[in-house]
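Figure 6 in text form: structure in, sequence out.
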């Protein structure tokens, strides 16, 4: 039986879709160093100012900044006209039209008409393209955090949640519609901590039922969107940290997890000095503004045109290759989980070091092999869009402080046949990743997707023929937890982050029929998200099993292990 151990509400959920996030973790930098770099890198846009300026028009929205007394960055809205970009790209209609799909339950209130009383008058900034896209088509994301060593205390968790909101200014904001197809971040007038709850779970079946129930709650953008749920199972405490996907990505979820456990650790040990020293992390500009502070260079403008031509050719021709039953309406999304082993994880890291490649390349190669086996076809040409963690790829590295949505996209293309060697494919993927990163495609795709004509007749006709399914599979390598998973205090047992998963609602089929995510702490933890139809759940589990088994055994595969060998394996 599940017991409800706190007062509360319902509404909402939580967290992470992401596509594949590359494992490039940089050192965290002191805020003073980031400030110095910002002011030197962006002298045109970072002047002292406290007022909102009028809109002059143009392609990008930029910010001016001032430093508060604690050395944190505060951003105020200003708009810079990008005349150079408009002149060079005048032949391209500047569109931000989202794809028309019949699945999308937008999960948002009509706050343009009736919600202004919930927000402070001044908006912070408009949503970037990907933020707007996720606001329209995705619900929330959840980080599912498994704790070892201690039992989490609910009262301490409640205070921790309030301090977490105090630390991350973006958590005090929600989305307000301002015009057709555009929204802005705006600060809420009131912060009602209604979605912080505790549940007592007696067995695994009840745990699964509660996870499915919480995951499919709809978001309420007129209230605090942070959700914190504590599930007390017979063996351990499990925390769910939830928020809208447009508010943060997978790495952002790890940042939030670390801050949550750090604050909880300070509170339980009575470390008042550390609590008082918590500084507010101010929200940052969107990806395009950070990536192109001085406009888009001419070379990259040509690359944008090239990518756009390629997508105009390939997107209207895409067809599903693995089974997925189309319901024609949005259904509940159910997550399922598998764990690897620490021994396999260490062996994979060693094999990757010997081969001179990354774990991310192994994870992607395993996706290609698994899709081929699921399709029962050894001769495939696959085009795969994958996401990249951008935090340390901007002109000024951001480090691991901000929750926000900082992902970029790149496209990979490969032809497979039955003689394709697994490790040859890994090396090929690694090489192509390096090439597209050098081209800065991970930034350029933000511009390309904004310019792509999502309402072109060819694209919409193909989408309709595919049952409005835009993608078979979305894969996210969220990456390795970039903080110490052990939280220590003198006189107290250690708080140990054992593992984490991520999932959300309305991902399937809005993003893809099937979504697979991978997190790593001391071993790899795998999540599959799929909508509830029995046929799709069955096929999803088959694909999920192929994938996890291949990744976990990849370290032991011979150099000549081929796709035909994988097809013939059980």
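Output sequence:
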């Amino acid at each position: 039986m599940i017991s409800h151990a706190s007062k509360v509400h319902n509404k909402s959920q939580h967290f992470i879709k992401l596509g594949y996030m590359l494992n490039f973790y940089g050192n965290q930098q002191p805020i003073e160093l980031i400030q110095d770099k910002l002011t030197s890198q962006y002298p045109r846009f970072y002047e002292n100012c406290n007022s909102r300026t009028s809109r002059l028009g143009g392609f990008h929205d930029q910010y001016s900044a001032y430093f508060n007394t604690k050395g944190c960055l505060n951003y105020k809205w200003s708009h810079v006209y990008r005349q150079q970009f408009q002149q060079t790209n005048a032949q391209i209609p500047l569109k931000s039209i989202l794809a028309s799909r019949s699945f999308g339950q937008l999960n948002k209130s009509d706050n343009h008409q009736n919600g202004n009383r919930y927000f402070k008058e001044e908006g912070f900034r408009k949503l970037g393209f990907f933020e707007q896209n996720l606001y329209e088509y995705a619900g929330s994301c959840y980080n599912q955090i498994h704790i070892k060593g201690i039992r989490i205390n609910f009262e301490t968790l409640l205070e921790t949640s309030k301090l977490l909101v105090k630390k991350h200014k973006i958590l005090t904001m929600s989305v307000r519609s301002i015009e057709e197809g555009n929204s802005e971040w705006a600060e809420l007038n009131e912060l009602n901590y209604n979605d912080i709850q505790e549940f007592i779970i007696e067995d695994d079946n009840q745990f699964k039922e509660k996870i499915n129930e919480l995951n499919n709650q709809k978001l309420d953008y007129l209230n605090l969107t942070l959700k914190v749920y504590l599930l007390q199972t017979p063996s351990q405490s499990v925390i769910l940290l939830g928020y809208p996907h447009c508010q943060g990505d997978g790495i952002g979820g790890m940042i939030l997890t670390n801050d949550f456990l750090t604050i909880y650790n300070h509170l339980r040990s009575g470390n008042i000095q550390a609590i008082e020293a918590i500084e507010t992390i101010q929200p940052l500009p969107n990806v395009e503004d950070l990536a192109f502070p001085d406009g888009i260079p001419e070379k990259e403008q040509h690359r944008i045109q090239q990518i756009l031509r390629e997508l105009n050719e390939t997107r209207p021709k895409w067809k599903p290759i693995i089974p997925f039953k189309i319901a024609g309406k949005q259904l509940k999304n159910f997550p399922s989980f598998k764990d690897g082993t620490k021994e396999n994880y260490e062996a994979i890291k060693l094999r990757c070091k010997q081969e001179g490649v990354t774990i991310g390349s192994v994870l992607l190669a395993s996706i290609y092999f698994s899709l081929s086996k699921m399709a029962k076809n050894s001769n495939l040409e696959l085009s795969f869009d994958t996401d990249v963690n951008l935090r340390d790829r901007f002109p000024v590295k951001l480090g691991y402080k901000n929750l926000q949505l900082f992902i970029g996209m790149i496209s990979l293309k490969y032809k497979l046949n039955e003689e394709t060697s697994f490790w040859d494919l890994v090396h090929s993927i690694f090489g192509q990743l390096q090439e597209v990163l050098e081209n800065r495609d991970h930034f350029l795709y933000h511009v390309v997707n904004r310019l792509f004509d999502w309402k072109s007749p060819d694209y919409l006709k193909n989408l309709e023929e595919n049952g409005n399914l835009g993608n078979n599979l979305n894969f996210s390598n969220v990456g390795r937890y970039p903080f110490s998973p052990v939280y220590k205090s003198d006189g107290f047992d250690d708080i140990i982050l054992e593992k984490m998963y991520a999932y959300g609602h309305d991902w399937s089929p809005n993003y893809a029929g099937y979504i697979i995510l991978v997190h790593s702490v001391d071993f790899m933890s795998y999540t599959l998200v799929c909508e509830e139809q029995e046929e799709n759940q069955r096929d999803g589990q088959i694909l999920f099993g192929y994938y996890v088994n291949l990744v976990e055994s990849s370290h032991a595969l011979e150099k000549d292990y081929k796709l035909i060998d994988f097809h013939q394996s059980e």
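Caption detail: Residues 1-109 have pLDDT under 50 and may be disordered.
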